[in-house]
Structure formats: structure tokens, C-alpha cells
Amino acid sequence: MNPISKEELAxxxxxxxxxDRNCQRLLYTQFFSAGMNIALRYSNSKDEANEIxxxxxxxxxxxxxxxxxxxSFNGWIRxxxxxxxxxxxxRNKKHYHHLLLEDxxxxxxxxxxxxxxxxxxxxxxxxxxxxxxxFNLYVxxxxxxxxxxxxxxxxxxxxxxxxxxxRVNLQKMLKEIYDIDYERxxx
Length: 187
Description:
8 helices, 70% helix, 0% strand
């Protein structure tokens, strides 16, 4: 869908404030793709991402009257989706099985240039839910360790350790892929 102007967005927001179903549908359609990309980063499946996104839009429609059009509406929606994903994680973290990780040092071969964004995203999704959440918050969304600690109700040290372990795990996965690709290319 094409980007909408500030004036068109103001009309949609006003319609949503007045509970106009057509405006709600149009707003949902306008921001669905970007919202789904965010939800997918914080979920373990497309079903979870759909649940997160739908919960987020319920919050958006309830709180839309508090949004100021002068501020970044995209940022406001993004924040709600991320917070909803974090709430989802907190509610379900007792169901996730956290893998025990070795503290082995990993070779720091730079294979990032050899793989696509999609491949890196798939690897991030293989991390445990806690590590994936910390990695996404810190690396992709720019939160500080202090903010992550407050959001996830963990210590700053746990946030730093989780990020370090996420990076080590990603490096291991990248190394495995690199070795496989190297053997294929060498033969």
C-alpha cells in the first residue's frame, strides 16, 4: 500500500477515535506489513506474530485518542507492537524451554557478508526466546541494557550476558553454515 499523507492519516485517526470500522480497517491495512515484521522478530511462529499484532491493534484502537499526530505515528505504533510482543513473551516465558549454552569461544570469521538478511533473520529466530528478545531489543531496536533489564524484569548483567550468549550462538550457527558452504565450494 502507498504511504498516506499526514492529512489522510489525521482523517483515519479521527475515524478510529469515533470507532468507524472502515477507518479501523484502513489503518490496520496500512500498518499491517510493518507491524507484522516487528511482531515476527519477537515471536517463535507466524501464529504468535499474528496474535501479538492483533493484540497490539486492539491496544492501538483503544489508545488512539491519546496519540498526537505531530509526533511520529509510526513510532507510536511501533512502540505499542514491541511492548505487546514483550508482554506476550512475559506471559509465555514459563512455557519456553531455554537451552543450556556452552561458553566455548567461537572463531570470529566474518561470514556476515556471505549471507542475506533473510538468512540472518532465520538464525536469530533459532535463538531461545530470551536471547532473541534481548538481541532484538539491543541490536535492532536500540534499547540500552538498563532499559532491557527494566522491560524484561532481569538484571543489567543478565541483559549483557544474554546479548553475549546470543552473539556467541549466532556466531556458532554462522560458522556451521560457513563450513558447510566452504566444503561445497571446495569440492
